[in-house]
Amino acid sequence: MAMVVALLLLAGGVSAFVVDGGDTPSVSFEGRTIVVSPDQPPPTLPGLDGEVAAALPEIMRVVQDKRGLLFKKPVRVTLLGDAAFRARLKETSESDEEDREELKTAERVLQAYGLLDRGVDLDKATEALLGDAVVGFYDTEKDDLVVRGEKLTPYVRSTFAHELTHALQDQWFDLDREDIEDRDDEASQAFTAVIEGDAVRVEQLYLDTLPPEQQKQAEMEELSAGGGISADIPRILFELIGFPYAIGPTFVTEVVANGGQARLDEAFRNPPTTTEEILHPEVFLAGEKPKAVKNPEPDKGKKAIDQGVLGEYGFLLVLGRLLDLQDALPAVQGWGGDRYVAWRDGDRTCARTNLVMDTTEDAREMRAALVAAAKERDEIKVGAVGEVLTFTSCG
Question: What is the pLDDT of residue 228?
Answer without folding.
Answer: 67
